[in-house]
Amino acid sequence: MARIRRRSFVDLSIDVVLTLFCLLMILPLVLLVSNAFKTPQEMLAWPPTVIPDVPTLSNFKAVLADTPLLRWVANSLSFALLSTLCILMTSAITGYILGKFRHRLLSVFFAIILATAIVPFEVYMIPLYFQAQSLGVLNSTWGLLLGYLVMSFGIFLVRQNVIHSIPDELLEAARIDGAGELWIFWRIVLPLLRGTLGALGILAFFQAWTSFAWPLIVATTRETYTIEVGLALFQTGFTVDLGRLSAASAVVLIPSVTLFVLLRRNFVQGVASTGLKE
Description:
Elements: H1 2-36, H2 40-43, H3 58-66, H4 69-100, H5 104-116, H6 121-135, H7 141-145, H8 152-165, H9 168-176, H10 181-192, H11 194-209, H12 213-218, H13 227-231, H14 242-273
């Protein structure tokens, strides 16, 4: 009986600590949304208030009137969605080939892919910019996509799941029945990788959605800015327009939170499945 009580106390303590930690994690987001509805005087008040005393929409109206915020959101959304589709396609095909086909050169190719993961993007960003310039894709979505077509971690993630969660016997049975490799990949492999690709899709979307350095040098006109570059305009060398910045950031949270809510089950399933063994 004492052991059961001790275990219950430990479990309750863990739950309390995790709950407090979660509250601390979401507190900045709560304050961000709250500041979007505050007046400048209330934002400077101390102690800060979580619920605005006099909620106002003036910050949202000012942002929508003075900046092409919706255009920036549309640019980021199209860029992130196309990048996600490209990464899912390249990761699924490459991960399947590296996981289920045996060849000496494939191991070397996989080692090269893993080696590229430790190279910072800033190292090859300038040569990539000159390549985009020579292709004539600056200030366009295709120029943004040039640096976000492949994700080395995505290839690694799919390969590990293909090895540990898709048995070779299943693929051999399909080949014996006369199925081609494209049919096997489309009808067998992809359905079994649904959770993994869902998790990878969320990671790829957020990678493109929050990118800043590459869009900053590729998109040089105000109409082609992504949302991260556009948000930087609210901060100057000496001041920060906190009200408008909070309002714009609150609007930016809507697509990302919506995507995570819709795909959260696939995300958890895909992350958990990386630890499965045969």
